[in-house]
Design goal:
26% helix; twelve-stranded antiparallel β-sheet; 348 residues; 6 helices; alpha+beta
């Protein structure tokens, strides 16, 4: 049985994972992006936004989390997406009738509080309100989502309380637990929640609107973006993106009916490690003697969409993170991989 201090890296990852899974993004493809011209195919792909109101899709979403070698959860959710006419020529994109479907190979292990948190979040309906140009104007149902997240968060805080009880007179874990509570509270702020969902829309659609990109070319850009893991932390990011290839939208579609869009986002490792170290010093407090050895973070998003409309047919996001700490002279390490995917089948 690990000691309370021995569980600190895992607790930290659990706290970081309360943020909605996302990729930090600029609003749209930056004008100063640098392509690797040696890859150029000679074909330019024009990406435009034109989701037609009145369409409906059956959606199958999957989400999983692996910490170390343990599968913490593997969930499958069905829902319905409907595109409705909004105000001033805009659209309302509704995800409704969300229902959890147990996967065929669900892990036998008892769910931890963080897993129950993700399960409750996955079942919530969501609305995106967008302009006629694809710009995100607002997100509906955030109040309900926040209410559910706060309820489930109480279960995670109970886990922290049990660690405090084990801590006895030392008090170090008590301080860490209090600081983790503060981090989780910040993750549930309206601003942080809205940012996470907005970045998912941006990765699927908003980032690509009105871009003209060479097929098969990898574009690169450096920017400063909000960390998807630690609320309020701004990090320098290196991002690679592009239109990888033409692909069928689905199994029965023409082979070139859609394009595969990809974004890889990696923070500067040296700066990120230093910034995260400073945050952890505030988290652990002066009572824990620690130093951060390594911190890694990488997010990759892939989208299959129709170039003329940016209508999404599939979406996937993989986020990898790891931390290695020396705490009171002992090295502790933890790594976690979160995966999320969505497949849409349109009723035509």
């Amino acid at each position: 049985m690990p000691t309370p201090r021995g569980r600190l890296p895992a607790l930290l990852l659990a706290a970081l994972a309360t943020c909605p899974l996302s990729v930090p993004l600029n609003a749209q493809v930056p004008a100063d992006s640098g392509p690797d011209r040696t890859q150029a195919s000679g074909e330019t792909v024009s990406l435009r936004f034109a989701w037609p109101p009145g369409i409906t899709a059956d959606v199958v979403s999957e989400t999983s989390r692996v910490r170390g070698d343990e599968v913490l959860h593997a969930l499958r959710i069905t829902s319905v997406m409907e595109v409705l006419e909004g105000e001033d020529g805009g659209l309302v994109i509704q995800y409704r009738d969300s229902e959890l479907v147990e996967p065929d190979a669900a892990p036998a292990a008892v769910e931890d509080p963080a897993t129950r948190f993700m399960r409750a979040l996955a079942e919530q309906d969501l609305d995106y309100r967008v302009g006629g140009d694809g710009e995100l104007l607002g997100i509906g149902n955030l109040d309900r989502i926040r209410e559910v997240m706060e309820r489930e968060l109480g279960q995670m805080l109970h886990q922290l309380d049990s660690l405090v009880a084990e801590d006895g007179a030392d008090g170090s874990v008590r301080e860490v637990a209090a600081n983790l509570r503060g981090m989780m509270d910040q993750a549930l702020s309206e601003e942080t929640l809205a940012q996470g969902f907005a970045e998912q829309w941006s990765g699927m659609v908003g980032f690509w609107v009105d871009a003209d990109l060479d097929l098969g070319v990898t574009y690169t850009v450096s920017s400063r973006e909000a960390s998807p893991l630690i609320p309020g932390l701004i990090l320098p990011m290196e991002m690679e993106f592009g239109v990888e290839e033409r692909v069928p939208c689905h199994a029965d579609a023409a082979p070139d009916s859609c394009v595969l869009l990809s974004i890889l986002s990696i923070p500067d490792p040296e700066v990120a490690g230093g910034a995260v170290g400073e945050r952890l010093r505030g988290l652990f407090g002066a009572t824990v003697d620690f130093r951060i050895l390594t911190f890694t973070q990488e997010s990759e998003m892939r989208v299959v969409a129709e170039p003329a409309t940016l209508l999404t047919h599939s979406f996937s996001l993989v986020s990898r993170m790891g931390i290695e700490l020396e705490v009171d002279g002992a090295v502790q390490a933890e790594r976690q991989v979160d995966e999320s995917s969505m497949i849409l089948r349109y009723r035509r």
